[in-house]
Structure of Glutamine--fructose-6-phosphate aminotransferase [isomerizing]:
Amino acid sequence: EKGGWSSFMAKEISEQPEAVLKTLLGRVENKKVVLPDLGVLAEHLEAIDRIVIIACGTASYAGMLGKYALEKWARIPVEVQLSHEFRYEDPVLTPNTLVISISQSGETMDTLMAVKYAIEAGARTLSICNTQGATIARESDAVIYTHAGPEVAVASTKAFVAQIAALYLFGLHLASVRDTLPAAEIAAALDELQAIPAKLEKVLLTAPRIRELAGWMSDTRAVLFLGRHVGYPVALEGALKLKELAYIHAEGFAAGELKHGPIALIEPGQPVFVVVPSPRDPNSLHAKVVSNIQEIRARGARILAVAEQGDAAVLPFADEVIPIPLAGALFEPLLAVVPLQIFAMELATAKGLDVDQPRNLAKSVTVE
Ligand code: M6R
């Protein structure tokens, strides 16, 4: 079933271009989003005044990316909550609140209970789910299925990129319904999305180099991940992957937070992955992250940068640059996450660990 791959995870990482392609299939026509999946929810979209995204683990990081996209495109306030915290916060929910749950399995008990809570409180519910007919999908008013195909490895990879694609489709659809984005910008964003599968193929070609790096780092005790804006959830995801697969202490930070404490952790030789925004970023985040790199480099950090190909500003300060193809800011995470997935898998392999079935973990967490 692994089709020649050494693990399901390796296979699923390689299937990411297809996971995105299939999630978009039939949902983009004439530069517009077509989502018949929304069913009864479609007629309520104009009245929605707030969105709460609920999910756990990797799915929650897809949710964070969904927040950036939905707020930017549809100009609607979005909050992201861990499913298991949501109910206990006595959340404000009305019939105009849309609660979007994200779950690969569709069976995560924490998320299911949160969805049921939202339904009882009278909110509208939409689920983004990778498993046909799963409980969370059946409970929700509507479901947008991600078509990543079955994900077997405990560590989520292809489901994550498919979740981002589904959220972005929904965001662009909402923008069109609410008239918050000109048709030309929607069309351009859809072009970006449709270009992702081919770009993912290119990122996958970095795998041999990442395997080498990971091989040299098998006795590493801690790895830090930095990112900013959409790079921040990518940093969190990189750290989660490394914890669960390689049992290495890993932490993701928003790069701007460094000087507020975490920079104290930097000592000579400390590996730090940095997800670098594109130098074309209109908010000058690129320059800010490059200056973060310089600060930690001066304190001896070993910098592993995931940066846009041709980003010359990073080169002098990084020990290693893993290049990703050019993409619009919101779309970079779909590419930048892949080297971090591969790194975690290869480091776990170098340590002789089972990457498909890490200790203490189950693929689907069906207890609260
Ligand atoms: O099936 P779900 O998407 O609801 O699962 C959510 C998390 O349990 C899951 O993403 C978990 O964090 C993964 N093992 C991460 O790789």
